[in-house]
Write a structure and sequence with these properties.
The chain is mostly helical. The chain has a domain of 110 residues: Endonuclease III, domain 1, CATH 1.10.340.30. The chain is 59% helix and 0% strand. It is built from twelve helices and no strands. It is globular. The two termini are 25 Å apart. The relative contact order is 0.13. It binds iron/sulfur cluster. Iron/sulfur cluster binds next to helix 10.
Length: 214
């Protein structure tokens, strides 16, 4: 909590996840893999402007047409496939009703999302935390880099081990978990890069060692 407080004091509440409703958040979580958010915004705009921001529209859309709309997000053919896989799952299990799909428990959502081709652990947890509004902690490369450098995890620890640290030590508070991950991303983008900028980082006063981990 002390680390969170230090980041919050610097950056303020991050208001994550940007997106207009649960479907857009899910689509954004899938499109944001390996690209920056500005590119995702352009792809989301294209989908909105084409009247394609619905489960039914994406499900019915031809792969090439969908790939063209999301082209700004990069890796558009792969991402179109992933998006279609996700949407097909929602459509098959909840008859196009994204609200019903997301109303399940964390465990049920993990079981539904994890087998979808192209939805990794981080994307599944992002959808559960930010779109379904269920408490699950999201781990990404920034989280691992910061925690290793601060001696809180080992570089070889896996996703579940890192996630367990947050979920065991923090109070179960949906807004805290949502904003904690957002604060970590802010630190990771601005300071804790492969070449760290510890001077001026909000976590500078916490013990750290950047000598080995990139
Ligand atoms: S103080 Fe250094 S190691 Fe710690 S988060 Fe900031 S940049 Fe990374």
């Amino acid at each position: 909590m002390e680390m969170y407080d230090a980041m919050f004091e610097r950056f303020g509440h991050q208001g994550w996840w940007p997106g207009d409703g649960p479907l857009e958040i899910c689509v954004g979580a899938i499109l944001t893999q390996n690209t920056n958010w500005a590119n995702v915004e352009k792809a989301l705009d294209n989908l909105r402007n084409a009247g394609a921001m619905s489960v039914a529209a994406i499900n019915e859309m031809d792969h090439d047409a969908l790939a063209e709309l999301i082209r700004p997000a990069g890796y558009f053919n792969i991402k179109a496939k992933r998006l279609k896989n996700f949407i097909a799952c929602v459509s098959a299990s909840c008859d196009d009703d994204i609200g019903a799909f997301l109303s399940r428990s964390v465990l049920a959502l993990q079981e539904e999302l994890m087998p979808i081709n192209g939805i990794g652990r981080e994307t599944a947890d992002s959808i559960i935390l930010y779109a379904a509004q269920r408490p699950t902690f999201v781990i990404d490369r920034y989280t691992c880099r910061i925690l290793v450098r601060h001696g809180l995890i080992h570089p070889e620890d896996d996703y579940e081990q890192v996630k367990d640290i947050f979920e065991s030590y923090l109070p179960e508070d949906l807004d805290l978990w949502k904003d904690y991950h957002a604060q970590i991303v802010a630190v990771g983008k601005e300071f804790c890069r492969p070449k760290p900028k510890c001077a001026g980082c909000p976590l500078e006063s916490f013990p750290h060692d950047c000598s080995e981990y990139q």
